[in-house]
Amino acid sequence: MRVDGIPMFEEEGSYKGMLFLLQNITAIRRLENMRSEFVTNVSHELKTPIAAVRGFAETLLGGGVTDEKTARSFLQIIYDESERLNRLISDILDLSKIEQKNIAMDCSPVHISSFFESMFETMSFVAEKKKISLQSDVPAELFIEADEDKLKQIFMNLLSNAVNYTQEGGKVKVTVRHLEDDEGRERIQFTVSDTGLGIPKKDLPRIFERFYRVDKARSRFSGGTGLGLSIVKHLVDLHRGTVTVESEWNIGSAFTIELPMLQDDSH
Ligand code: ADP
């Protein structure tokens, strides 16, 4: 609690009394702490790929690597790590824009089955490489009012996680359902499920936090930034929806998103 006392005077200058301002600064402190923690995390996350790029580049420049195969593998690491750096920076910028509420919604009707057809096309290359089958169960003529670019970002993150954290030969499936509650409010339920590595129960409550990863090495190996799910959560909030997860270690995960079918005008 912070207390500020401000003396108050009448117009002609005589003393009127004190105005006391009692401010609960816990929320402000918490926000400040969160900010500085974020900056620390960001610096740490950026330093790791930069250190890898520098280390491998220095070794190559030192001229000690004469074998062409080793040299190429070092170059590949430099390339992959700079790609990850790129993704990290763009995720950090996205997240900070969203968190400052500095982001406009641009909603229009989205034809859901065409939407996933094009999502799957984008994903097919990576999925085929891992022999993962992409399946969908989506009603043919269903529309949702949403910001299509943000919807793409949501499902690109969920689908790439599903593919990344599923072993070769596994399955990734999108299921879409049209729901209606007792008061006639319509919602669309999307589930992205996989037969992958799963998430231990103890980690589930923290999975949407920035930079939280079940297994750092596994996430880094797959090029992850630790920000994908946090971005998903914020974008779902912007649509006034919910996101939940169910998962079983070594069996698979299912992320379920429910969004209102229509966005009201007050947005
Ligand atoms: P990352 O870039 O590391 O994938 P995310 O925020 O997208 O970051 O996810 C956070 C963590 O949640 C991941 O590091 C991973 O440990 C876990 N995770 C997310 N999706 C899945 C999934 N489909 N299967 C297993 N683990 C997952």
From TrEMBL:
State the organism of origin: Paenibacillus crassostreae
Subcellular location per UniProt equals:
Cell membrane
Query: What is the annotated signal peptide range for this record?
Result: none
Identify this protein by name. Answer: histidine kinase
All copies of domain Histidine kinase, residue ranges: 41-263
- Part of the full-length chain shown: 332 to 598 of 598
Give the top-rank taxon of the lineage listed in the UniProt record for this protein. Answer: Bacteria
